[in-house]
Amino acid sequence: MARMTFADLAARAQARPAVANQPIIRVGMSTCGIAAGADPVFAALNAAVKDRSLDWRVRRTGCAGMCSMEPLVEVTLPGQPAVMFGGVTPEFATQIVVDCAAGKPLPAENRVPGLAELARVAGDPVPAAGEDAPRQYRIVMRNCGVIDPEEIDEYIDRGGYQALGKVLSSMTPEQVIGELKTAGLRGRGGAGFPAWLKWNLTRESKGDEHIIVCNGDEGDPGAYMDRSVLEGDPHAVLEGMIIGGFVIGATTGFFYIRAEYPLAIQRIEKAIRQAKAAGLLGKNILGTEFSFTVEVRLGAGAFVCGEETALIASLEGQRGTPRPRPPYPSVKGLWGQPTMINNVESLANLSQIVARGGEWFSTIGVGRSTGTKVFAVTGKVKNAGLVEIPMGMTLREVVEGICGGTSSGGPIKAVQTGGPSGGLIPATELDTPITYEHLQKLGSYMGSGGMMVMDESDDLVELSRFYLGFCVDESCGKCAPCRIGGTQMLRLLDRIADGKGTTADVATIKRLARAMQRASLCGLGQGAPSPILSALRYFESEFADRLVPEAN
Amino acid sequence: MTDKIQATINNLPVEVPAGATILDAARQVSVRIPTLCKHPDLDATAACGICIVRIKGSNKMLRACCTPLEPDMDITTEDPEIIQVRRTVVEMILSRHPNECLTCGRNQNCELQTIAADFGLREICLDSIVPDLPIDESTHAITLDPRKCITCGRCIQVCQQIQDVWALTFLQRGIDTRIAAAGDISLADSPCVRCGQCSAHCPTGAIVEYDETQEVWDKLLDPDAFCVAQLAPAVRVAIGEAFGFPVGTNLTGKTYAALRRMGFDAVFDTNFGADLTIMEEAHEFVQRFSDPDAVLPLITTCCPSWVDFMEKFHDDMIPHFSSCKSPQAMVGALAKTYYAEKMGLDPAKIYVVSVMPCTAKKFEIIRSKEMRSSGFQDVDTSLTTRELARMIKQSGINFKALAEEQPDHMLGAYTGAGTIFGATGGVMEAALRTSHFLLTGENPERLDFQKTRGLDGVKEGTAIIAGHEIRFAVAHGLGNVETVLTRVREARDAGTEPPYHFIEVMACPGGCVGGGGQPYGVTDKLRAKRAAGLYQDDQAGLWRCSHENPYIQKLYADFLGQPGGEKSEHLLHTSYRTRKTYRR
């Protein structure tokens, strides 16, 4: 693609994509789809179309969110609404083409709800209370499952890079920060720090150079929102990064992505190449004075490297261990320079906030929790997958309404949010609205977006042991409270699980937990006791039942 | 950043310069905050989690060691929850630490033991989870026992940041985190230069000097052995710390007496060796200085860690190195030749023990074949100040009550120039005094060269001798060497006049007074006090220039001949070779 100018971008914004006059078949080919067998389905579709010399388009696309129904195939016939098929086999895929080519109606089997039934997307009216509309609202995932993530043109056709054009042609960095402030966007990595504050602080900090880092070191067990966005819409994250680079005055940006995400890495690298070729990245972006390059760095698998100071150490080639804050990375980060670290999902929101205005964004969500949040809903849930909902929706609406309740059909016992640093929320609290503040009040937190559903068959002592074990394995070992406290707590928990624990052990667990929360250096150690403390808070009897009976 | 910050700690108003931590501020108003990992020499590692405090009314706790005080902060350093959390963290650390205090080298001198005692822990409710890890004694200079390590990271910081050696690192993670040489090789195979700064900064017994006290006791028991001791300059002003003397007290005479009580047959002073080193080194310097083709600057070689460091990482500097052995090596060689001859002793039966502020001296005595110039190993065993203090205690000697004694003068009389070897810049100052004499025939008008003194990492200056400008540099702390050597290399590569004529390097911050074998708890304040003790010894001496030492004069007249002469070359000089190893 030739280097673009503002005029080219404007022209693309005006152009209506040609209405296809041939059938389009899209196959979900993110990691979830491929793991479920999307590759042979894609091959079968291509072969069937080729064998019949049909002028049909077979495209790959990202994760639409319905991961438990993969492989997903969406068929759009000219002039007709799209039809989604789930659990597609190569044979069934071939049959779709055969039937369709023969003029027969699309098969009635394997149909699942289509994207239009699931979600509205940014630009659609925000669902009003009580309105009978799809429950999801997709800003971050607006293109996931829709476009071919490896084609920059498809992203641009959906309005991509218009926000970058707007920023570079008509906005000052302060104005962008102003929009972020109006929007009320908070960091989506877990802690929920106001984004505008971080951007502003980094921008105002003095240094030889300013650096922006996209944190793609997603690691909570069962959470894969960032991976799906990187795989399904890499340009959206890249566009957010370029805008961020302009705002803070950076000339270099780094994607820090865990090496276990090969497809995400491959797609973001391809997106970088495409954006460079299109003049949207590199020297003199869109013909302006602004130059910005992006490099990809791979994380080697340590969970703690998602913590921003450990991430910086890792980027510097040091052992990935956290450093004391302050100084905050915004002031003194990578190689001592002001560094802004944003989560994938935070950056993916950016172009929409700029394009549609902070005001628009602030109308979505409630209170200080504006916008949407993507969750990876997993566990004993009927429709496991990714959902993006306006914040303020209740947990029940997500787990029961969108995801269909438990897979067994039985009652929900608890929902865990926030991964290994989060907490268990009992069924009695499911009507709690999902906001940063509400979740914290329950002893959990928003976290990066893991949401694990438990039914009555789940053993919460085991679950606590699983999460704590994860943190013990992933502790970097730098500070004593996390390094030793976690290990000792796990030993006590093992004892309880084995039926050998005493009430004194429970008391010691609580004491160790408090010391870890208060005295650990970083979020990993501070958060590690949360699952067990919430389990003890809401389900103490499950622990008590395992204890050695007290002698009287 | 000269702004002052005003805040409140435990309701006490406090004012500190901007950037000061809560811990600094608390100390200023005499509020004690316990900490285990923070060392005054080092940046906070924030590892132990014991120094937590809180802003009044907040749930969150902050680490006092690394949190800068902010204006109007209202800090509480102790409340029941803070105390409970601290106690719990100490309990956690103790559960991972072997309960071997009674037989540990740090017994009664251990920061962890002190904290445990302060917190009054009477029971550990947690399982003992001490790992089974091997002890690394491969260097024969320091002993690394990773089981006793609390992974505070001080040793790694000092090894990497202060000394620029990068031998030590953390391996593995989580509960399995441990210190070791990078790559999990033995320390002897690593870039370790055995300076022992890791041991001097370790809060526990995880890194200590390689203990050789028993070997010395065995020899003292052996009726056939003629045991002689020599005492390094910096030991005399530090050993008193082990016996309750004020820091920097000069205890030369008492130490001689103690050594004799312990059974040494003769007591020498390494200061004599220092005077001798100056005779040889000043001679070498004047020769090079007077020869337009000679390689300059000349670089001192008394410090074995520096020699090791240079051979490993800066071998292009070998031509600049003085060929002089260190004072301890010179005394060792002479004990088994000159002294043996004069006293009619069989050198094979002489057993030379050196008492050094240093762990690397244990390596120096075997570093090359030239350390056997007498035909035997010139120095048999090298003890650190800490080991000698322990031996004195083992003897039951009432050190405080000992009457001062004199050394055996043949190898024991010394000048002020010899004694200041123990402080950074001292060798340079002593060499300049005698160089002045060699070039002009008289002593300099002012014997004190202030520019060589003090604790700045790199000190530079000029001395005018007989109309010649002598440019010198003094570096201490191996991390400061690079700056000086870079300037030398730049001039060399550009073919221009070298920036210096003479360079002194000591591996340890402060020089030998801050040596890796000195009593624990070193800080710059202590280093300065110990150095002050040496400069007082210099002032008080009968002679302040090495060439004035009558016993040195006698040695040359009766035995050696001339400085740089054939016998000197054989006994008092050495050579260097490349010892390439990996660099960080």
Structural overview:
The complex is a heterodimer of chains A (552) and B (584). In chain A, the strands form 5 sheets. Chain A has a 5-stranded mixed beta sheet with strand order 2-1-3-4-5. Chain A is globular, with a radius of gyration of 24 Å. Chain A has 22 helices and 18 strands. In chain A, a hairpin with a 5-residue loop joins strand 14 and strand 15. Chain A folds into 4 domains: 23-112, Glutaredoxin (3-Layer(aba) Sandwich); 152-359, Rossmann fold, CATH 3.40.50.11540; 365-455, Ubiquitin-like (UB roll) (Roll), CATH 3.10.20; 460-544, NADH-ubiquinone oxidoreductase 51kDa subunit, iron-sulphur binding domain (de novo design (two linked rop proteins), Up-down Bundle). Chain A starts with 5 loop residues before the first helix and ends in an 8-residue tail after the last helix. By secondary structure, chain A is α/β, with parallel strands linked by helices. Chain B is an alpha/beta fold. Chain B has 3 domains: 4-78, Roll (Ubiquitin-like (UB roll)), CATH 3.10.20; 98-209, 2-Layer Sandwich (Alpha-Beta Plaits), CATH 3.30.70.20; 214-572, Rossmann fold, CATH 3.40.50. Chain B is built from 18 helices and 17 strands. Chain B has a 5-stranded mixed beta sheet with strand order 2-1-5-3-4, covered by helices on one side. In chain B, a hairpin with a 2-residue loop joins strand 15 (458-465) and strand 16 (468-476). In chain B, helix 2 (80-95) packs across helix 3 and helix 8 (270-290) crosses helix 14 (426-440). Classes of the chains: A alpha/beta (552), B alpha/beta (584). The interface between A and B is large, with 32 and 39 residues.
